[in-house]
Amino acid sequence: MRFIRPFRRDSGAPAPDARHRRPRVPRERGPVSSRRRRLLLTSATVVSAVLVAVLALRNASGPSESGPERSATGGECGPTDLLEPPCGAWFGAFVPHDRDDLEDRVRAYEKRVGRTLDIVYTYHDMSLPEGTRREGQLLSPEEQRVGEDRMLLLSWESKWWGGTKGQQPTWKEIAAGELDESVIDVQARRIKDYGERTGKKVFLSFDLEMDTRTPDNGTPAEYVKAYRHIHDRFERLGADNVVWTWIITGYLNHAGLFERMYPGDEYVDWIGYNQYNYYRCHETDWLTFAQTQTATHAWIRKNISDDKPLMLSEFGTAADPSRPGRQAEWYGQVPRVLKDLDGVKAALQWNHRDPGPHCDLALADDAAWRSLREVVADPYLNQPLS
């Protein structure tokens, strides 16, 4: 079975001003405010300016065959306890893969973009984490090997892919502790053990795009209770190497749901959102990278958190058959826009397709790959991992 995020579409009607938002299509089934002020604000700004200037000269000729050199390690630009890169942003990707070829697929992707990924994004369900089934095992053996040189973002969904209707977990059941012994505690101990053996932390997201899962999985209040229960259970079991990442669609006609489903500052370390240029896939206008990102970014900063690190947890674009170079041009805009998005500390490219005609969001041709290769050589996206 492939490690592929089950496809979901927005369940709400598009807002009048939301040209880039997903149309209403049936989905496949499958606060406490204790804001943490950003650290090293002044020093990081100065260091970043100097670092970018130096590395720009060093990389002026573009990436070498082995990829761009990393920025100077340690010091003010080393990652924080919450895996924030103070002087720039991480680059990562979702790379489609089968059960046992994650390493090969990641290396093949990295060869084409000319560098090692900072973050590899994978997806899991809440089936019983036992036997040879990988879907229900956070930190599979393949993921752990990939994680030796990279960070991992694990998306954990309250589903049992391929299971019966009765096997599908609900938020109410999770919050009541009904999955503690069989699923949640097992995964918490796996992650804790991984941290003790390797000294590494992992990004963990519970039910990404939860705004599309209600009411099927429960009410917004039940989601918050389930999220907090998992968080507290991990803490109780000593799994303190988790960076809690709350990921929404980012479609602003769900703004009310975002506010009701935010677990609270004490339960969230990073905030992610998933925005695309779908174009012909959803019969919308062509949207630039900036048009897909800026409105949601501004809303989150105003209404959810003005200081949490943000992640473009999925971003990408369809191609335009009438203009073959248009996808490459779209990616070429990323560094300039990214640097102007306050607090965005990671950008993860979605290199796969969605179901339906014209819905392939993967890089379409050599020109698009060359463009992304140049983008990810930018010093801003090459930060020290230690």
Characterization of the model:
This protein has helices spanning 41-58, 102-113, 141-146, 171-175, 180-198, 220-236, 255-261, 289-303, 326-332, 334-340, 366-375, and strands at 90-94, 119-124, 151-156, 202-206, 242-248, 270-277, 310-317, 344-350. It is 32% helix and 13% strand. It is an alpha/beta fold. Strands 1-2-3-4-5-6-7-8 form an eight-stranded parallel barrel.
- The assigned structural class equals alpha/beta
| Rounded radius of gyration (Å) | 20 Å
Strand content: 5-15%
Report the principal-axis shape: globular
Q: Quick check: average pLDDT?
A: 84
Secondary-structure blueprint of this entry?
Elements: H1 41-58, E1 90-94, H2 102-113, E2 119-124, H3 141-146, E3 151-156, H4 171-175, H5 180-198, E4 202-206, H6 220-236, E5 242-248, H7 255-261, E6 270-277, H8 289-303, E7 310-317, H9 326-332, H10 334-340, E8 344-350, H11 366-375
Parallel strand pairs: 1-2, 1-8, 2-3, 3-4, 4-5, 5-6, 6-7, 7-8
Keywords, separated by commas or semicolons:
alpha/beta, eight-stranded parallel beta barrel, 11 helices, 8 strands, 32% helix, hydrolase activity, GH26_dom, membrane, hydrolase, GH
Summarize this structure briefly.
With 386 residues, the chain is α/β, with parallel strands linked by helices. It contains 11 helices and 8 strands.
